[in-house]
Each structure stands twice: as structure tokens, then as C-alpha cells.
Design goal:
Elements: E1 2-5, E2 12-15, E3 18-21, E4 24-27, H1 32-38, E5 46-52, E6 57-63, E7 71-77, E8 79-86, E9 88-89, E10 97-103, E11 109-112, E12 116-122, E13 127-133, E14 142-144, E15 181-182
Parallel strand pairs: 9-15
Antiparallel strand pairs: 1-2, 2-11, 3-4, 5-13, 6-12, 6-14, 7-11, 7-13, 8-10, 8-12
Length: 188
Amino acid sequence: MNFIKTGIPDVFIIEPIIHGDSRGYFMESFLLDKFQETVINTTFVQENESCSKYGVLRGLHYQIDPMAQSKLIRVIKGKIIDIALDIRKGSPTFGEHVAIELSGDNKRQLFIPRGFAHGFSVLEDDTIVQYKTDNLYSPEHERAVLWNDPALKIDWNIPEEEVLLSEKDKRHPLLENAVLFDYGRKLY
């Protein structure tokens, strides 16, 4: 497994080593000891899966303390643009984001630590996204940032008129009005 640093510290791309032959392929998609040694010493407690059609945009979601979450995202089938947005007030990368294509073909994963908002846009029909979290889902701690906040300059790789949103995702605040994390505070 290769752990690749991104432009924002603590956000990692994880590439599995794929062994393929005429029968198909085999890969290790997660190794706890390597993950804890290389990325962060955390334990995932919940795994979620969604299936979406082209144009669906989910995000930019996060949970506040004491239910903040790190996420490890992968695509089983299809393709997405996955976004990790730094919402740690005082961070040198505050308001910046990492955008990466995750697909069933490239089998890459993205680790998003606590203190970041997460979202993705679906680039193919019947895309299956699976992700682990290190804290349980808690609706009362759920928060979000508006997906198309002009200050963020996120390219979702979908024309705006083709974006499909939930009613909830249409009403989130801009980053400047969102509940934020404090940079430098231990999140684990």
C-alpha cells in the first residue's frame, strides 16, 4: 500500500497494490497497522455505502465535537471527485481543499481527518461509494458548508445546471458563517 501526502498535511491518498492476472485481481484495501503507523492512530467504528447516479453531489458535510469524524473514502464502482475542505480556523490551509478522482478503476482512497468537511460529485451512473468513519453518525452534531460557496473555488467537474442535491444540501451556510474547528487543538 502506498500512502501519498497531499498539499494539505494530514490528508492522504492511499493506493493499494493490485495483483492481477487472467482471473481478475486481488488487493488489500485496508491494513490497520500500516494505516495507524503511517497516517493516524485511530480506529474506524462505522462503515457506510451509497449508490448514486451521475450529477449527484453530496456535501460538504462534517460533524462537530464530541462526535467529529475522520473518514476513509473509496469507490467500489463508478467515479467521483472527492473533496476534503480544511475548516480549521487558524490553519495555514484554512479554506483550501484537496480534490481527487476516486474510481472503481483506480481503487484509490482518500483519508480525511477531523477538522475537514467532506463532499463528492458523482461522474458516472450507479456509482457506489463506501467510507469508514472513526466516530458514529450523530444527526445533532451534523454540520455542513454550502457546496458552491464562491470563496471555495471548488471544481466539481459537473456543470452547475446538472448538479442534483438533497433539499438539505441546498441550504447550508457559506464557510464564513459555518461552525468551525480550531487549528492546533488535538482532534484525536
